[in-house]
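quick one before i forget lol
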Amino acid sequence: MTITRTTAVALAAGALVFMSPPAHGAAPAGSAAALTAPEAPQQQALRAIAAQQLARAALMDFRALPKQDAGPADARYMATLLRDAVSLDESNAFILRFAIDAAAQAGDQQAVLALTRALVGIEPDDTSTQLQLIRARVGLAQNAEERLALLENFLGPRGEQIDPSVRSRLAVDAALLQKETGDARGFVESLTAATTLDGSNTGAAALALDFYSSRVKDAQGRFELLANTLLASPLDAGMHGTLARELAIAGATDQAIRFYDNAFALRRRQVGPRSSVENEADARQRVDYLVQVWRSRGPEAVVKQLSDAVDGPRRVALIDLDVASA
């Protein structure tokens, strides 16, 4: 790694912070008053600037490396410089987040834990940071049993003050560990807790759907599982299409059409109204939709749908030609 620029910035930062003249009226260096007096606003501002410049230089140097050349030593170097930047300005959450990522890339879990704890101290209401802190703590455990014991501690009465959304995701972590260790009963209990604590937890809903769908035989039960997953991710076009297919199988034709309409509308928002991109699953879904339209409204409605599908792009193409020739 080329360190000339980073070293220069680090030296400049040190010069700014530690060699700047004391504020007017400040106590002499080395005196008891100087050791206990709060840092002057000017000194705080200089430290903040130095921290930003040091962090920026560290990130630029690392990102300038070709991906194939960036190794563990480079990640550790960047992590060290970012921790130095944090020490200059411990209130900068932006730098802290970069420092956490760098420490994770360098494989320093102790630093990840310490830096994440500092970030939680700055932003105590940030649930994603709370989750990251707990996961970093759990990640230091030596084996699955120790990790499960820590997770159960957070999920038990002692963790009741933790935000439910955080506990829900910890419950998913516990469920996956229990599945790995063969604890089927514990897996079901943790998965149930995850879906109960936070209905918007997409990961928990998808895991529950995957687990229970092969065990639930009746159509109503499968639909309820799918509906729970949709509630967790209401803008998932694929889930709307899956629900439509389930309704079509059950003979609820009009309801299936509504969910297909939702799926197509969401899909258009994702790829754009004039996109011609359509994969095999989309094409199959379109055929299923037309079958439901035929059942509900007759063949004339299908003919109209197909005619509109051809005429719409044709009109757009003609307009584009007119504009281009004008």
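fyi The mean pLDDT is 77.
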